[in-house]
Amino acid sequence: MKCLQAKDxxxxxxxxxxxxxxxxxxxxxxxxxxxxxxxxxxxxxxxNVDNYINVEPEEKPQKETVSYILEAAPQKKQETHTTxxxxxxxxxxx
Length: 94
Description:
Elements: E1 10-13, E2 32-34, E3 40-43, E4 50-53, E5 66-69, H1 84-92
Parallel strand pairs: 1-5
Antiparallel strand pairs: 2-3, 3-4
């Protein structure tokens, strides 16, 4: 859990790019080549499967550790101020 405290971590949103062969994640050392057809090809470093991906330069991992934000943090309900009479009335309702 100490890695969650690291300050030198890249934060990313969106989907994790995984190899269709072995499910390894696109990483800092992955080599992405542009093909003649205008696609991006990533040959997996582990299983040598050709993956055709679509990532913007800023989406490619820039550090060894990337933390992906899978969903937004829950929103805190806004506090409301009620009078004592409203609280009594509110307690009678189901």
